[in-house]
Amino acid sequence: MTRLALLVPGGRGQLGSDLAALADQVGLLHAPGSAELDVTDVGAVDDAVSSFALAALDAGLRPVLVNASAHTAVDAAESEPDRAFAINATGAGQLAKAAVANGVPMLHVSTDYVFPGDGTRPYEPSDPTGPKSVYGKSKLAGEQEVLGAGEQTWVIRTAWVYGATGGNFVKTMAKLEGQRETLSVVDDQRGSPTWSADLAAGLLELAGAVVGDTPPAQRVLHGTNAGETTWYGFTRAIFEELGADPDRLQPCTTADFPRPAPRPAYSVLSGAAWAEAGLTPLRPWREALSAAFATVGPQLRP
Which of 119 and 102 is assigned the larger pLDDT? Predict the structure, then answer.
């Protein structure tokens, strides 16, 4: 099996931390946070990628760049679009150009928000995009920058990510469970909750594939835990894991909770292309949630 070296910009975030936790499965792993590697700094990006490529070569390893850096504050992006585009589009493009220049394949993590969110079946990678929010537009621009940099670049869209590090929906609901007797949760948005540890494992498998003899021909893939639910259904499952009564929850509509950034009503992503690439499908979202509470439960609870 090819020994890998992984460079993970955004390595202190939710997904980046779970990728960093896989260090014992690769020959070399460097996961700089934004304070260590500012992806909007061209010189810093060029230096980081070239020095990592040389270190991997010296160690007899195959380097892969997995970009987990992102401006993910969806509502804040509406009022600070320049920052969102600087990180999600320009920064991603700079990483891709540096990776291609140094012969390093790149995996770029994107989002379900690149779609309009008005579908009725799971989105395939080839389906037309049409983001409604600044965040989604900035991520789509990043995809285009990455794919346009060279052939050894791949985009992996994911959705509804939660994990042990940072803030996320699971942690918010776990906190509110202890603060409120009843809670209203949106029931007219559908997606696929994805545990960041499962996504990290899938990206590691994909990294091995892109340096193998037959890298995936499809350069845009979807990686989420299988199945779909609503935020209300997801929260009922979270309450079950907490040992709380799910009937304390009440379904509501998106209109009941207006937000600065529009949310997709339906953004389920099809995993067919992922499986066709020979990659292991991510397990069902409900099973993953139970596994998350079993392994990192203390970090998910308040």
Answer: 102
**What are the sequence ranges of the domains in the chain?**
4-168+193-226+268-283
Q: Structure tokens of 199?
A: 């996504």
- Residues 101-118: tens digit of each pLDDT: 999 999 999 999 999 999
Instruction: Give residue 2's pLDDT.
Output: 72
Beta carbons of 19 and 66 less than 8 angstroms apart: yes
Q: With 70 as the cut, is the pLDDT of residue 77 above it?
A: yes
Q: Report, as residue numbers or ranges, the catalytic residues.
A: 135
pTM recorded for the entire structure: 0.97
Give just the sign of the alpha carbon dihedral 247, 252, 258, 261. Answer: positive
The band of 1, judged by pLDDT with boundaries at 50, 70 and 90, is low
List the CATH code of the domain at 4-168+193-226+268-283: 3.40.50.720
